[in-house]
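ugh ok so i messed up the first submission bc i forgot one of the chains. this is the corrected input, ALL of the components this time, i swear. 857 residues overall. if the numbers dont match what u have on ur side tell me asap before i send this to the collaborators (the ones from the other lab, u know who)
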Amino acid sequence: MRAYPFPSILLALTLTGAALAGPVKGRISGQEKLVPDVYTEAAKPDSHRWIWREPSPTVRSEFRALSANPSRDICIAALESAAAPAHDPILIKITGGRTIPTTIAVAPGTRIAFENRDPFPHQLYVVNSTTWKPEIINPGSRREWSAPPGANRFEIRDELFPSVRSYVVVDPGVVDVAYPGHDGAFAFDKLAPGDYVLKAFFQGKTVGKAVSVTVKGNVLVDLKDPLNVADGAGQ
Amino acid sequence: MMLLSRFWYIVLSLVMAGALYVAFLAVGQYNRRNAVAMNEELAGDSQVVGWALQIDSRHRLDALLVGAVDKGVQDALSSANGRDPLPRSSKDGARRALVAVSDKLAPDYKEDALFAVDRDGRIVAQLGFDSAADDMELGGYPAVFDALHGYLRDDTWVFGDKMYRVVARPVELDVTQPPVGAIVGLKLIDPIYAKEVARRTRANVAFYANGRRLASAVQEGFDASIMDQVATSLPTLAQDKAYTDSGHSEVHSLSDTVGAMYARIYGDGWDLGAGYAVARTRAVVAGPMGFIAGADDKDKANVNWGLLVMALVLGAAFGIAFTFLEHTVPLRELVKQAASLKRGELDFLQLPRFRGAFRGAAQDLNQGLERIVEKGGGAARRPADLEQILGPANAQPAMSAFALPGQDGQVPPPPPARGSAPSAHSGARPNPAPPPPSSAGGFGPPPPGFNPGPPPPNAFNAPPNAFSAPTPLAQPPVQAPAARPAPPPPAPAAGAKLSQTGARPVPPGPPPPPPAPQRPYDESEDEEATMVAAIPAEVLAAATGEHKASEDVAEWLSVYEDFIRTKKQCGEATDGLTFDKFQHTLKKNRDALMQRHGCRRVRFSVYVKEGRASLKATPVKE
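and heres the new structure output, hopefully the right one now
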């Protein structure tokens, strides 16, 4: 394990809707129908993940539906037709039984640093990879991974925490990514003028229909129709 | 024969071998049953510990309700949602609320760490777990994820070398809105927790994760160091199909006497090799003596001591009794008779008072004494060598000197032997004639060619052993009558008078007592009666003479007294053996011998053969 060498780290539109101001903004819908597989599996009785699991009698049933956390699990990527250059290094935190975010789309050659923010070690690895095998990441330490050339999808897991399932989508056209808030709103504020396609990714896969958008200078592009991420989920 | 004591030794040996066999079988069965019992107890312990963890989670989950409905927690989480970074006021308010909640928890269910988590899973405040970073989250754990979606949930987390039992509940502010967050409680599985579980379950329990034992607690009397071995079987659990399928392993041996059963723990730890193990000691008996070493006072008190003492006493009593009867009594009799022999009260050992080897030894001693007397010039108490005296006689079937002849003048075959087989030494004799049956009744060995007359109507019928002939061993080995031709005995002349040899002074005794009225002799009346031959009338007439008769009567009276005394010494009954019968028998036999061998007189003497008094008839040719 070595220290992360980069002084500045880019994590696009981290977490909340506070950074929605920008040339493109929009919303997603249907996110309540997306459930990460890890929680679906953990909810099953034969998963042996719990002794007691019962609904709180004071929580209404419509609020008890498991659903993804858009700010962690749903990635909106802006892609252009031409091959995009590698992004600046991206920091992904490891904490809380998952990585933040759990899904990200990057251009080939982009370096990603996984930083352990927990007070105990993690041991990430890329599934079916012969090069990025399980390796201890001590508290406060980072482990770097570079996106290989070409379009691909990678799943990253943690040997010490079964709930950690992260996905990296490598696509040559990825220019930028954004994460919606609880209300589904998202925004891109650094897109250069040009034509883009907005895609939503969940668990490393495209969800919803892609939306084309054209950025002209600093003119705000406000998408009238939300991206329905529940449409065609799993593709 | 001393069979009883030997038989008793065999019985005791069989009993002892049987007891050992049973003991060894008992050892095997005891160990096998203990192994089965230990396995069942371990399965029970494992189940009980699982239930204890289940109940503990339930209680802690319910106890956490005070945090879920705490106003301070609700407000703090509500104010933190959607804010980045988290407001300080929310953090402080949440922490104060968690302190208050912790104080309200019952001591048995007080958490080691409490977290207030907003709807994104961010930690707004925590109590305990001070190592958490400022931006640490919990929302990715399935338990917290479920709690944020309105579920009560427990879990097991493994954080490095620590394992936590986790409970989480949703925190609600408005029933018309989703939960604003969750409150999470962590219980560290440490020796204190393990001790509490062990106390509740009365099991020896150890918790493990990541291939290491994290905590353990044992019951009093159980070697705690054995629990260090729990981790040794962890690498092999992956091959335990029962463990991978059902979560409960087969029994693994931690040592020769300790077994352990492993169980996977529910939660995230299920896939991380986390679980708990219960251990028990199996009582093993190495051998039959192990039952004694392992017995306690209660076991000893349950022993049926009465039965044991009775077996001991009976076993010893029978053994002592048998050896007393077969060893002590005859030895004492030998000592007693030896003392009598020394004092001159006895000339020979009384064989009937001995049994088995002692009788044989006494008989050998008697024969030795006779041999010593003979060497010293004394008269050996054995029959004379009639062949040497009278010369070779016609071949005669082996028979007693006083056996009953048949009507045709032939000697009937002697009765079968009773209690004695033909002597094995007979083959060593130089006499080519077949050895006489040892059991022939009569007054010693008959001379060759002896052919007594027919028996009288009221013959003194003796049992076969009465007046038995001496054994061949009693005869001097130098005798070789067959090798020395001897003139045939002269035929007695009719009416010839037998003169007394004068070897014994003839006492001027009274006239012979009138013959007692004869009656049919009952064989059972006197086993010692001799077998007599019928006296021919002409011989009887020739032999009668008043002077000679008085001499014979005097001599026979002496013989009679000697015979009675010897019989008593031999322990034989003398009832019914009157002098009248005795002299009548002697007279008939004397006459028969005189007629047969032409001798002038016949000398009778008493000797002991095989422990019984017998008579010898020795023809005198003078």
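quick check: The mean pLDDT of chain B is 77. that seems consistent at least. The longest helix of chain B spans residues 3-63.
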